[in-house]
Amino acid sequence: MLTDAGVATVTTQLDHALAALEKALAIDRSDRKSPSAAASTDPALVRAIGGVLAIIGTVLARSDVVPLGELARLFELYAAISTDDDPDVGAIVVAWSGMIANAAGQGA
Fold first, then answer.
1. Which residues contact 102 (CB under 8 A, 6 or more apart)?
2. The pTM of the whole model exceeds 0.85
3. In angstroms, rounded to a whole number, what is the distance separating the alpha carbons of residues 19 and 22?
4. Rounded CA gap, 5 and 32, in Å?
5. Alpha helices in 10-42 (DSSP H)
6. Quick one: what percent of the chain has pLDDT higher than 70?
7. Residue 2 predicted with pLDDT over 70
8. How many helices (H) and strands (E) does the chain have?
9. CA-based angle 62:67:73, to the nearest 5?
10. Rounded CA gap, 23 and 41, in Å?
11. What was the pLDDT predicted at 65?
């Protein structure tokens, strides 16, 4: 129902982010200065970082620093802004936002 209304689910967001990562990995990286730059777009690494961010967000929420849902919304806002400059970065951050929203029980 949400997808029909044009609202992307967490799974859809993650799928888009992973597709962007796979596309980025297919690009020739000979112009990159650091070999670690290629590793930073590894889908498993993106998922691992997203999981860690969800854990950190949970700790912050339990300490009444910021609710987990609010943290997800902040990541989503940052992703929207980042997409203008670098769509791949935006896709990664929106995936993290979705993972955090899912941890908050807001994911679909």
1. 10, 54
2. no
3. 5
4. 40
5. 10-26, 35-39
6. 60
7. no
8. 5, 0
9. 145
10. 10
11. 95
**Nearest one of 79, 65, 76 to 101, comparing CA atoms:** 76
Q: Which 8-state DSSP code applies to residue 50?
A: H
Question: What is the phi-psi region of residue 105: left when phi exceeds 0, alpha when psi lies from -120 to 50, beta otherwise?
Answer: left
b/e map 62-77, b = 16+ CB within 10 Å = eeeeeebbebbbebbe
Q: Which of 92, 85, 97 is nearest to 18 (CA)?
A: 92
Please write the tens of the pLDDT for every residue from 30-69. 444 444 444 456 888 999 999 999 999 999 999 999 999 9
Cα dihedral 21, 2, 99, 70 sign: positive
Q: Is the pLDDT of residue 14 over 70?
A: no
